[in-house]
Amino acid sequence: MTIRVLQAITRMIVGGAQLHALYLCQRLDKSRFDTQLLTGPELGPEGDLLSAARATVPTQVIGALGREVHPLRDVEAYFAIERFLKKERFHIVHTNTSKAGILVRRAARACGVPIVVHTVHGWQWTEARTGTMNRFIIASERWAAGLSDRLIVVTEKDREKGLKAGVGRPEQYVLIESSIALDRFTPDPEKRKQFRRAFGIPEDAPVAGTVGRFAYQKAPEVMLAAAKRILAENSAAHFLYVGDGPLRDDVLGRMGDFARHPRLHLSGILEDVVPSLAAMDVFLLSSRYEGLPRVVVEAMAMELPVVSTPADGVLEIVIPEATGLLVPHEDEEALAKKAIMLLADPEQARRLGTRGRALVIQRFDLDGMVRRTASLYEGLLQEKRLA
What we know:
Blueprint: E1 3-9, H1 16-27, E2 33-39, H2 50-56, E3 59-61, H3 71-88, E4 92-96, H4 98-110, E5 115-120, H5 131-145, E6 150-153, H6 156-164, E7 173-175, H7 189-198, E8 207-211, H8 220-233, E9 238-242, H9 248-254, E10 264-268, H10 274-279, E11 282-285, H11 294-301, E12 306-308, E13 324-326, H12 332-343, H13 346-363, H14 366-383
Parallel strand pairs: 1-2, 1-4, 2-3, 4-5, 5-6, 6-7, 8-9, 8-11, 9-10, 11-12, 12-13
């Protein structure tokens, strides 16, 4: 029989969790799985994947479903989700991210959905939040884990962190790393030339850069402070910042004249990040916390050496002196220093980039991720005697 699957996520901005859910909707075997997407309408300056979803996947938008906690709207969203699930009668509900994870898992159990799975794209309790909020998030995740047949984590660190906080049982956890379409992320000299030409970057100039939202999680003020140091130290270097977000105006406003530096290139959101990555020589990440940062995997696939903070999922892919370099959180000086060193040492940069791409090819093939997810579904169907 055809298995009806719902992928649910709070919002379809341009982000790793959103691409993960969309890829599963698009790539699960259609002769076996009939897949739909449920999401909220909230987008914003981070970009739009909702249009791409609607063009390729049956998509249900719940108007009241938003990212922030809002008691009245959340109750409205819950009942809308419940009505939808009662109407559609899915065999499997697979949730992604915290808000959709809580509301949709509760509604799925209330509606008698046989199999409920949740993917953790990084836990949401962090040092950046208050103790009260962290306690509320952990309590909510503990409760929701009791509604779940399986908890998928994209890094081993998230498994350890979840169990340490008392979320779920060890046997509930499954590791399925969030992966990329490797055929798209391949070094391309022609794209490198075209992108540099379009942005007025000389072909032989050393270029450091990043791709990320202007949001607290990504520490954009730290990234731009590092960029300022890089451009001051290396008069030939350029810095490329790809992305947008709610903090953009505030952060750039605090950078003063540097925001208009002729060798600083602020591209905004790009529909395709491959040419921008092709144009870089070193990739930087300044995040305060992460699950598994997809953009780092993409950068490594493009043979870029990575300089990053030790955010949770980063530690499993950026191996010091092997695939990249690590620097302390909030340390723009260390971030800049390592980037300057790699820009001045193309041989070391090339060595790190080559090893990084080899690691990505071994572990992060998108087809493998889809196969592992389908295998998990099939195992649960057997377990529930639904196959």
